[in-house]
């Protein structure tokens, strides 16, 4: 049964979403990680599938079930996430919600590091910026590239800076600071930042943010394709 176009506004589109944290190994039993739950990213993947899209979700380690109707690729590290995203492209829309670890331990120890009188020190290396790499592709750039900005202060200024620096089309800014922050919670309050302005949405359940964001992106994609 064919759905009305309004119900499946992303039918025939490929959407790639990153979600969750990455874990960067220190040794076989320890890692650098962060507090991302993956709730918002997984909800966006599910909402895009519900809107008719063919969805690839590249997920770091999370305690969530794979969303139904979505192709989920499980990764641990930022390098693996970057490779999985490259393999998933081309896409019409790329949405980077993952809290990618900014640094990895340059040389993870092959065996568990034992406690001793000498404190261990770790040299760090910077991880690849997955969002910036996708947004700055010369060929095969997704029509819409959306990033998230998790900030604890000066939220809009930092988010505007990220939009310009990474060259994405939209940054979704959210406050992850303090007890009111979004990380791990079921609700999120976001501001959409585009080169032409900012739009703040009321605090909503992450599923509702996802559905509204997907409707918004489907509309924007349609406008760009018509233009
Ligand atoms: N991101 C990414 N790859 C990275 C780091 C970030 O794809 N190595 C993406 C995130 O998924 C998010 C956006 O970039 O969509 C912003 O992430 P954020 O951590 O806020 O930005 P950074 O540039 O890492 O800046 P900082 O952590 O210093 O605020
Ligand atoms: Ca970061």
TrEMBL record:
What's the protein name?
Coenzyme A biosynthesis bifunctional protein CoaBC
Task: Show which stretch of the intact protein is covered.
Answer: 191 to 417 of 417
Q: What is its biological role?
A: Catalyzes two steps in the biosynthesis of coenzyme A. In the first step cysteine is conjugated to 4'-phosphopantothenate to form 4-phosphopantothenoylcysteine, in the latter compound is decarboxylated to form 4'-phosphopantotheine.
Concerning its family, UniProt says: In the N-terminal section; belongs to the HFCD (homo-oligomeric flavin containing Cys decarboxylase) superfamily. In the C-terminal section; belongs to the PPC synthetase family.
DNA/pantothenate metabolism flavoprotein C-terminal domain ranges (all copies):
10-219
Task: Give the span(s) annotated as Phosphopantothenate--cysteine ligase.
Answer: 15-227
Indicate yes or no for the key word Iron.
Answer: no
- UniProt pathway annotation: Cofactor biosynthesis; coenzyme A biosynthesis; CoA from (R)-pantothenate: step 2/5; Cofactor biosynthesis; coenzyme A biosynthesis; CoA from (R)-pantothenate: step 3/5
From what organism does this protein derive? Methylovirgula ligni
GO terms for MF: FMN binding; metal ion binding; phosphopantothenate--cysteine ligase activity; phosphopantothenoylcysteine decarboxylase activity
A single GO cellular-component term from the record reads: phosphopantothenoylcysteine decarboxylase complex
Known EC number(s)?
4.1.1.36, 6.3.2.5
Amino acids binding CTP: 102, 112, 128-131, 148, 162, 166
Query: Which UniProt keywords are given for this protein, alphabetically ordered?
Result: Decarboxylase, Flavoprotein, FMN, Ligase, Lyase, Magnesium, Metal-binding, Multifunctional enzyme
């Amino acid at each position: 049964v064919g759905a009305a176009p309004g119900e499946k506004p992303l039918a025939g589109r490929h959407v790639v979403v990153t979600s969750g944290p990455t874990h960067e190994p220190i040794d076989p039993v320890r890692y650098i990680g962060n507090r991302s739950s993956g709730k918002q990213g997984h909800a966006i993947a599910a909402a895009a599938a519900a809107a008719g899209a063919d969805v690839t979700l590249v997920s770091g380690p999370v305690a969530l079930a794979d969303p139904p109707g979505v192709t989920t690729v499980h990764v641990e590290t930022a390098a693996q996430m970057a490779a999985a995203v490259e393999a998933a492209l081309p896409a019409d829309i790329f949405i980077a919600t993952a809290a990618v670890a900014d640094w990895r331990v340059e040389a993870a120890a092959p065996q568990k590091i034992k406690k001793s009188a000498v404190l261990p020190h770790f040299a760090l290396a910077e991880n690849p910026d997955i969002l910036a790499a996708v947004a700055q592709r010369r060929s095969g750039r997704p029509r819409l590239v959306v990033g998230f900005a998790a900030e604890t202060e000066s939220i809009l200024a930092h988010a505007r800076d990220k939009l310009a620096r990474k060259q994405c089309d939209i940054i979704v800014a959210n406050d992850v600071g303090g007890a009111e922050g979004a990380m791990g919670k079921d609700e999120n309050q976001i501001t959409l930042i585009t080169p032409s302005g900012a739009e703040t949405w009321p605090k909503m359940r992450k599923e509702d943010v996802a559905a509204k964001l997907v409707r918004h992106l489907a509309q924007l994609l349609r406008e760009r394709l018509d233009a």
